[in-house]
Structures are given as C-alpha cells and as structure tokens.
Amino acid sequence: MSALFNFHSFLTVVLLGICACTYLKMQFPALLEQKTGFRGFFWKAARIGERLSPWVAVGCFTMGVSVIFF
C-alpha cells in the first residue's frame, strides 16, 4: 500500500521529512537557504522542525512506540 493511501504511513513520511530537513539545515545551512520554489518546501519543513521541536520530538516518540507495538 502506498504512503498516500495509508494515513499512518503518510504521517510517518511527513514527520521523518521534517526531522531530516531540520537536521540538514543544522549541518549544512547553505543547502536550505532558498525560501522559494522546490527547495523552499524543504526550508519550510526545516523551519517547522526548528520552531516546533518539542512537538516534533513527541511525535517521533509516539511514532516509534506505535511502530514497535502496533
């Protein structure tokens, strides 16, 4: 089943994308400095990860628990 049709998989992909973009922005800031176009989408995901980091961390923990036990 595709991640677009399964809501749990879709949330997993979105959360991992936010975490990956935030990590890349911290390691290589010049890579995500363009705020428009296709790379602007990744800049926005990194901004969400920076500003909402406690909520993203709770989401990652919840996702990990649900993957292990359910």
Automatic annotation (TrEMBL):
**Alphabetically ordered keywords of this record:** Golgi apparatus, Membrane, Signal, Transmembrane, Transmembrane helix
Q: How does it sit in the membrane?
A: Single-pass type I membrane protein
Where found in the cell?
Golgi apparatus membrane
Whether Electron transport counts among this entry's keywords is no
Where is it predominantly found?
Answer: Golgi
This protein's source sits in the domain of life called Eukaryota
Q: Where are the transmembrane segments?
A: 6-24, 52-69
Q: Tell me yes or no: is Isomerase among this UniProt entry's keywords.
A: no
Q: Name one GO cellular component term.
A: Golgi membrane
Protein's job: Involved in the early part of the secretory pathway.
- Protein family (similarity comment): Belongs to the KISH family.
Could you identify this protein by its name? Protein kish
The root-end lineage is: Eukaryota, Viridiplantae, Streptophyta, Embryophyta, Tracheophyta
